[in-house]
Amino acid sequence: MSSVLLEVQDVCKRYGEREALSGVSLSVQKGQTLGLLGPNGAGKSTLVSAICGLIRIDRGNIALHYSEAGAKNADSKKYIGLVPQDLALFEDLSANENLSLFGGLYGLSGKDLQTRIQSALELVSLADRAKDKPSDFSGGMKRRLNIAAAMLHDPELLILDEPTVGVDPQSRNAIFDALEVLKARGKSLIYTSHYMEEVERLADHLVIIDHGKVIANSSPAELYQRLPAQAALNFELAQALAPEQKNALLAMPGVMALELASSACTGALRLQDQDHAFACLQYLQQQGHQLLYFATAKAKLEEVFLTLTGRSLRD
Ligand code: ADP
């Protein structure tokens, strides 16, 4: 049996002249966390709305493969929990009352609803604020309450559209903790963001979209492989690096580039991988250089976007 939960095939969506999605295909496996990355305006929210059936697509197909026998396409909302970018909460109702209202919309009631509310509030670390109103909450707490609301009906797929925008560090951590718990429970997640490091923390698989097109669709490890330089050796020398020493370093195996400050004492060697750092350090010592500082660093996955598009993810 296939373990694919969601299949998006060749989806196109136009807003007037603007093509927001042009031939997007991706799939989400059961239990998988998909990081959907792209700069502002790439088409992430449009894709999320299309998956949730909130907008009509012009072309393509979106299919949710339910584990429950007999479920129909029209039931898709039952299997998806959406945490939208725009917060949908009633400021004058308590957290508990907000969740009762959302639960009611999903046909939940009575003791079952109360049990689910309690466990959803615990999941997002708001159990002690059940009686408080969102008007007294920080932006991050409101977002956590939104996540709780989206989980009440126990959906198989939770979609979070930029869940950490405008969120304080404490809530950010609470959100990550909650998502880790959901992952461990075997839920499938789609997490959209324009922060690579956030997505990297959670995602098993990454899809990068730009101008409505998929430009990468692979595991984080495979994406790293696409980086020409996967590591850096940052250094500071007591004396300036001579031009011939610079050329010798650049000719060494695995050295992709050398960025040198105007003093020629401080710099960074871009390396294919960290294993090449040792030979570079040895060379500098053989040349009589005194190293005041050195450290290796792994390249950031964020640089993949730069490599693929020539632009930074947050331009
Ligand atoms: P993202 O979520 O990646 O920031 P969006 O899906 O919101 O991107 O937007 C993709 C493109 O579609 C953008 O160029 C945006 O201006 C346009 N767009 C989104 N929604 C609408 C709309 N309702 N009407 C017209 N254009 C829209």
TrEMBL record:
<dbReference type="GO" id="GO:0005524">
    <property type="term" value="F:ATP binding"/>
</dbReference>
<protein>
    <submittedName>
        <fullName>ABC transporter ATP-binding protein</fullName>
    </submittedName>
</protein>
<keyword id="KW-0547">Nucleotide-binding</keyword>
<keyword id="KW-1003">Cell membrane</keyword>
<dbReference type="InterPro" id="IPR003439">
    <property type="entry name" value="ABC_transporter-like_ATP-bd"/>
</dbReference>
<dbReference type="InterPro" id="IPR017871">
    <property type="entry name" value="ABC_transporter-like_CS"/>
</dbReference>
<keyword id="KW-0472">Membrane</keyword>
<dbReference type="InterPro" id="IPR027417">
    <property type="entry name" value="P-loop_NTPase"/>
</dbReference>
<dbReference type="Pfam" id="PF00005">
    <property type="entry name" value="ABC_tran"/>
</dbReference>
<feature type="domain" description="ABC transporter">
    <location>
        <begin position="6"/>
        <end position="236"/>
    </location>
</feature>
<keyword id="KW-0067">ATP-binding</keyword>
<dbReference type="InterPro" id="IPR003593">
    <property type="entry name" value="AAA+_ATPase"/>
</dbReference>
